[in-house]
Design goal:
This protein has one helix and nine strands. With 117 residues, it is mainly beta.
């Protein structure tokens, strides 16, 4: 089950969020050969036109279990002030060739308006 977290983004500013992925025994999750996908949208049922994809990078070494999600100031400048929802998923291909997807984080994001635009 995914962890739930709320955070705030300033409209028109660069933003980066670091996620530390851990196993049930609290050790770092090895993210070798994992892909990270993270998206933000106004509501869960919004169409894909309103979806913003985070730049998602697994830090080196992947065995440390650290992911950085970021948005550029250009991306955040296009967001209207208000509340959004997001989630973060890890995926990898297991030894049987099946794609395994795990949602690791989800929640709400508050976008605060910018005066200097």
């Amino acid at each position: 089950m995914a962890q739930y977290e709320e955070f705030t983004i300033d409209q028109g500013a660069d933003v980066a969020v670091e996620i530390h992925c851990v196993n049930l025994d609290n050790t770092a999750k090895d993210l070798t050969n994992h892909t990270v996908t993270a998206k933000l949208k106004k509501t869960y049922t919004s169409d894909s036109d309103g979806t913003v994809s985070f730049n998602s990078i697994v830090a080196s070494p992947p065995s440390d279990g650290i992911v950085t999600l970021s948005l550029t100031n250009i991306q955040t400048d296009t967001l209207k002030a208000g509340r959004y929802v997001y989630d973060v998923e890890l995926s990898f291909i297991d030894s049987a060739g099946d794609t395994i997807i795990e949602r690791v984080l989800e929640g709400r994001v508050q976008v605060t308006p910018s005066v200097t635009r």
